[in-house]
């Protein structure tokens, strides 16, 4: 007889005991002694020391016990009940009042502006969410300080170059932004800078205020008929293009990812980078700051521009090498520049660029209209609350988006997936050394129609969390798996079952490891378990090559035994003697009086003595105790 210790491994079962894993119920007999009452889908987070205790489904932060939630309504009611406490939301920059009102109705809102990096790190440790604009650097240190509690960073605007997305992902923190509400404001500001620069509005205004009347000095240039290059034909760039067309300009755009039909619809030609910059009279920048756009406008690119070009930047200061721009202004390659954004904000008071007489500047005002700020504030408040409430975020920056209908459909499978991962890793001898996992989804659906990212994340969570102190969710599951050298491959097999159900069964196989329960090892040497959802409840349906049928909740004892009368009673009595409540029992076997697998669900964890007694029942050949 083997116990749950790693040293007591027995060889895999003989092939006589190996019914087909794909259809265990056909070749196994089941005796379902008792069924448990199942908890509702508990979306309350199990997160440690976390006051807010939310379950962020879009991120799969935490799940609790086996559960069922087959409709969106079930899910939503579970979400709302999970946000009972008062989450703390730190707002570190000025946010529109309308958004603050929405946030205050939801939780405790702390507005603390102009925090030093140290002060931010100190505060963040007691916050569930952080809302920033472009002025707050959300660094790795911030995520480290917020570890375990900070669940979401909301960027009240578009650009997320001030947020360390890699660190956010590693710490499982969702980043959401408000990408649409300030588009028009930014485009209008771009046009304002374009026209103000062309007609020297700012310079002549300053001159008049200084008591001068310099009409000939401030002769401008006309815009009609001139070529404007839009660099980055996204939301803002397209709106600038529309407006520039209204000014009678010829507009071209460069954007490696922009669809040609959108450009055509606005009457804009998409051209190469070099073509755009070398033939244009005005160049307006609208691309994000990324590693590939960092200082993309530099000495080399300025040298390719038409002499006397005028540049507008309402995107990010970092896309321009500012020293090179000063040189280009001094040499006359660039006649004028109108800048709303700077590499360092605010720039130094003696910045040559800011002080340059041919440069018009504004202090990052692109998004600063009353309308845009109210809009952005509401957009980000809703996104952050949604994320804390477990809703799918349409503006997630560092997590795959899962459509609400997919989420609702997959809810019970999400629980099953985590339980299977959790069970599989506990069957590994010593629990460690897991490197290769294969997940097989059997489904009647076309493999293309089955989005398994959520399920894979939960299996990863189930496998990693019991053996490490990592915290896994949809945001960081793939990253953490990779970091730990865990390779999870997936296979989808089309089966002839109901296409109404997204998944028929999920099988988790771990290879190249020893098992503490030899019966879990298939002929191919892999630990294998399989489960399905029955009436919304996750069930374990196969262990190794043997069929079983137990609902997954509480704890589980798996025994391999000789199939003979009285086994259920013997084990049941031992557990009763130790005041351990049995929630269900199931016996699967291939044929009479040979070997069988008994699965016993227990509410409490049996002590060593009880487990030893089970182990000494002569007909029991091996057993393992597993925590779900
Ligand atoms: N000044 C402000 O207050 C203000 C306000 C809003 C937006 N912005 C900034 O403006 C920029 C654009 O915002 P958006 O809402 O239009 O974003 P967007 O994502 O809709 O558009 C950005 C576009 O840039 C394109 N792009 C990416 N790399 C490029 C490259 N190397 N060359 C050319 N194009 C490239 C993308 O394909 C995309 O179409 C962002 O940097 C944003 O932060 C500034
Ligand atoms: O990226 C943006 O949305 C703009 O740059 C606005 O930034 P702000 O919120 O700091 O005004």
Automatic annotation (TrEMBL):
Enzyme class: oxidoreductase
Superkingdom classification of source: Eukaryota
UniProt keyword list: Amino-acid biosynthesis, Chloroplast, NAD, Oxidoreductase, Plastid, Serine biosynthesis, Transit peptide
Transmembrane annotation, as ranges: none
Disordered: region residues: 1-25
Classification via InterPro entries: ACT-like_dom_sf, ACT_dom, ASB_dom_sf, D-isomer_2_OHA_DH_cat_dom, D-isomer_DH_CS, D-isomer_DH_CS1, D-isomer_DH_NAD-bd, NAD(P)-bd_dom_sf
EC annotation from Swiss-Prot or TrEMBL: 1.1.1.95
Main localization, broad class: plastid
PROSITE patterns given in the database record: ACT, D_2_HYDROXYACID_DH_1, D_2_HYDROXYACID_DH_2, D_2_HYDROXYACID_DH_3
Cellular compartments annotated: Plastid, Chloroplast
GO cellular component entries: chloroplast stroma
GO BP, sorted A to Z: L-serine biosynthetic process
Biased composition (Low complexity): 15-25
Alphabetical list of SUPFAM superfamilies matching this protein: ACT-like, Formate/glycerate dehydrogenase catalytic domain-like, NAD(P)-binding Rossmann-fold domains, Serine metabolism enzymes domain
Pathway of action: Amino-acid biosynthesis; L-serine biosynthesis; L-serine from 3-phospho-D-glycerate: step 1/3
GO MF term set: NAD binding; phosphoglycerate dehydrogenase activity
Domain ACT: 556-628
Keyword Signal (UniProt): no
Catalytic activity field: (2R)-3-phosphoglycerate + NAD(+) = 3-phosphooxypyruvate + NADH + H(+)
Annotated signal sequence range: none
Membership in a protein family: Belongs to the D-isomer specific 2-hydroxyacid dehydrogenase family.
Designated name of the protein: D-3-phosphoglycerate dehydrogenase
Source organism (scientific name): Acacia crassicarpa (northern wattle)
């Amino acid at each position: 007889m083997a116990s749950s210790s790693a040293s007591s491994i027995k060889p895999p079962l003989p092939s006589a005991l190996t019914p087909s894993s794909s259809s265990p119920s056909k070749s196994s007999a089941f005796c379902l002694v008792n069924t448990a009452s199942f908890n509702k889908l508990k979306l309350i987070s199990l997160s440690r020391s976390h006051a807010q205790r939310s379950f962020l489904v879009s991120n799969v932060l935490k799940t609790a016990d086996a559960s069922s939630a087959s409709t969106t309504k079930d899910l939503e009611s579970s979400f709302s009940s999970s946000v009972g406490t008062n989450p703390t939301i730190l707002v570190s920059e000025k946010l529109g009042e309308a958004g603050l009102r929405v946030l205050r109705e939801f939780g405790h809102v702390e507005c603390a502006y102009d925090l030093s990096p140290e002060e931010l790190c100190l505060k963040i440790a007691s916050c569930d969410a952080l809302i920033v604009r472009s002025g707050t650097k959300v660094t790795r240190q911030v995520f480290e300080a917020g570890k375990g509690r900070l669940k979401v960073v909301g960027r009240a605007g578009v650009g997320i170059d001030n947020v360390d997305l890699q660190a956010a992902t590693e710490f499982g923190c969702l980043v959401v932004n408000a990408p649409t509400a300030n588009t028009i404001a930014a485009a209008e500001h771009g046009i304002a800078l374009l026209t103000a620069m062309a007609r020297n509005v700012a310079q002549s205004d300053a001159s008049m205020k200084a008591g001068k009347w310099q009409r000939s000095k401030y002769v401008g240039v006309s815009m009609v008929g001139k070529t404007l290059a839009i660099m980055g034909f996204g939301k803002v760039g397209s709106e600038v293009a529309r407006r520039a067309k209204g000014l009678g300009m010829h507009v071209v755009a460069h954007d490696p990812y922009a669809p040609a039909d959108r450009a055509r619809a606005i009457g804009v030609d998409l051209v190469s980078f070099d073509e755009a910059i070398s033939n244009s009279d005005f160049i307006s920048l609208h691309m994000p700051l990324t590693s590939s756009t960092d200082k993309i406008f530099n000495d080399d690119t300025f040298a390719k521009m038409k002499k006397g070009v005028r540049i507008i930047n309402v995107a990010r200061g970092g896309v321009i090498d500012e020293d090179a721009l000063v040189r280009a202004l001094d040499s006359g390659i660039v006649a004028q520049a109108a800048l709303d954004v700077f590499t360092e904000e605010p720039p130094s008071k003696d910045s040559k660029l800011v002080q340059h007489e041919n440069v018009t500047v504004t202090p990052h005002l692109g998004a600063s209209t009353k309308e845009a700020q109210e809009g952005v504030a509401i957009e980000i408040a809703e996104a952050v609350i949604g994320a804390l409430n477990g809703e799918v975020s349409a503006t997630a920056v560092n997590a795959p988006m899962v459509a609400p209908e997919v989420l609702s459909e997959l809810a019970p499978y999400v629980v099953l997936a985590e339980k299977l991962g959790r069970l599989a890793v506990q069957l590994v001898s010593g629990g460690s050394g897991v490197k290769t996992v294969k997940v097989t989804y059997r489904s009647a659906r076309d493999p293309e129609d089955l989005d398994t990212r959520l399920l894979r994340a939960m299996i990863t969570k189930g496998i990693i969390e019991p053996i490490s102190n990592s915290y896994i969710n949809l945001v960081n599951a793939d990253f953490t798996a990779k970091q730990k050298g865990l390779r999870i491959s997936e296979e989808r097999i089309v089966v002839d079952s109901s296409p109404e159900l997204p998944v028929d069964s999920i099988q988790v196989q771990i290879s190249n490891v020893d098992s503490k329960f030899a019966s879990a090892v298939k002929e191919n040497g892999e630990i294998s378990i399989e489960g399905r959802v029955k009436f919304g409840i996750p069930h374990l349906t196969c262990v190794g090559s043997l069929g079983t049928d137990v609902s997954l909740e509480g704890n589980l004892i798996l025994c391999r035994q000789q199939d003979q009368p009285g086994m259920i009673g013997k084990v049941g009595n031992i557990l009763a003697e130790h005041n351990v409540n049995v929630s269900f029992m199931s016996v699967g076997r291939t044929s009479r009086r040979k070997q069988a697998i008994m699965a016993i669900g227990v509410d409490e964890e049996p002590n060593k003595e009880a487990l030893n007694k089970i182990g000494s029942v002569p007909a029991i050949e091996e057993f393992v105790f597993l925590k779900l």
